Amino acid sequence: MIELYYWPTPNGHKVTLFLEESGLPYTIKPVNIGKGEQFEPGFLAISPNNRMPAIVDTQPADGGEPLSVFESGAILQYLAEKSGRFMPADARGRYKVLEWLYWQVGGLGPMLGQNHHFNRYAPEKIPYAIDRYVNETRRLYGVLNKRLEGRAFIAGKDYSIADMAAYPWIVPYENQGMALEHFPHLKAWFEAIRARPATERAYALGEQIKGRFDLTTDEEARKVLFGQGAPR
Asked: What residues does the GST C-terminal domain cover (predicted)?
């Protein structure tokens, strides 16, 4: 039913977390972003921003032609609405989940991504950039830690797409220069999600995808990803 165009990155993991939790049938179509497969015409037809993940729903609710969706936040919202799971039906609960989903998409992911780039992958270590993004990472961790005080999950007592969106970006916390011991509420939330069977399955799927690359050593992959152009 769902064709998932995927590579095992934080944004890719968001969608496999949902699919493994929901039980919706799906197939993975790997998009090796280190080899530039995200620039192939077939993929650009469904993801014009040349970014994965993207999905194609071959059996959309309207009974029409297959429906494609790109951008991880939109995909999570689409799948939640399709399945009727992991997002409350009432307006107040729904918008609480969406607030935190968009917080992740607009803040947590991009800022932590810049942290990774300047800390680990940039050929030149720029102290100002490193300090800026490490400090912003720490601030965002603090926001999430405060939000989780007295709550099992980000939007309240129930696991939701807001949690699925945020969790994969916290997984590489050590590479971001963070220690979870400094954020006890976040740490408890993180460990609870990590222990979920669906989380274990989702990350095991990522490990099965072949052709992984190391951006600290693979110069061709660095050119493709950081040059933001298709390989020539």
From this structure: 90-213
